[in-house]
Amino acid sequence: MRVLGVDPGLTRCGLGVVDGGTGRTVRAVAVDVVRTSPDAELSVRLLGISDAVERWMDRYRPEAVAVERVFAQHNVRTAMGTAQAGGVVALAAARRGLPVVFHTPSEVKAAVTGSGRADKAQVTGMVMRLLNLEVKPHPADAADALALAICHLWREPMRVRLAEAEARAAEIAKNHKARLAAAARQAKTQGAAR
Q1: Is 144 a member of any domain?
Q2: Is residue 185 assigned to a domain?
Q3: Which domain range does residue 35 map to?
Q4: Which residues contact 2 (CB under 8 A, 6 or more apart)?
Q5: Which residue ranges make up the annotated binding site for Mg(2+)?
Q6: Catalytic residue positions?
Q7: What are the binding residues?
Q8: I want to staple 7 with a disulfide (CB 3.0 to 4.6 A). Which of 136, 144, 169, 172 is the partner?
């Protein structure tokens, strides 16, 4: 499976494409950072991000898109810009019928390093190691985009299996309740007949 990982941001938006193989094997395909000028209008900045993301989707043909979820930031303006950039990415993916999954920073850190509290240097180091990269992706947004793609490749199959198991359990519970209700009605009918 090929995944486009996106670390959204207005000034720097990290993009990374990773292919997943059997087991936990991963291979880097491409990585870059889209930059927009803080002096430009918001709409122009979002258009620039959208255009770049759409070019990447057309060029690399991902099967899914993993975007970092805005979890909590002290700076409301930064959080809003990050969320807007993530929304533009989700829209571009939806236009192509691609599934989009939002992962929290702690989910990404835990998937890649084993600790949800890992720092940027630890994440970058593990991304380099997992993808056999000789050069550190720079800036950190690039490494984060690759980490998002890896996280998705490793977590999504488990999430899908869990959702399927929950759906099966709900169906079994529904059928069981229906059988209990039918048995109760039958017992009531038989009791009334006596």
Answers
A1: yes
A2: no
A3: 2-160
A4: 17, 18, 19, 20, 29, 60, 61, 62, 63, 64
A5: 7, 68, 141
A6: 7, 68, 141
A7: 7, 68, 141
A8: 144
| Contact criterion met (CB below 8 Å) for 158 and 25 | no
In a domain, 49, yes or no: yes
CATH of the domain at 76: 3.30.420.10
Query: At how many degrees (to 10) do helices 120-130 and 105-113 cross?
Result: 50
Kindly state whether residue 133 falls inside one of the protein's structural domains: yes
CA–CA distances in Å: residue 81 to residues 18, 33, 58, 63, 168: 25, 16, 25, 26, 39
- DSSP letter, residue 115: -
pLDDT of the chain, 194 residues: tens digit per residue: 999 999 999 999 999 999 998 888 999 999 999 999 999 999 999 999 999 999 999 999 999 999 999 866 677 888 898 999 999 999 999 999 999 999 999 999 999 999 999 999 999 999 999 999 999 999 999 999 999 999 999 998 777 788 889 989 999 999 999 999 999 898 888 877 77
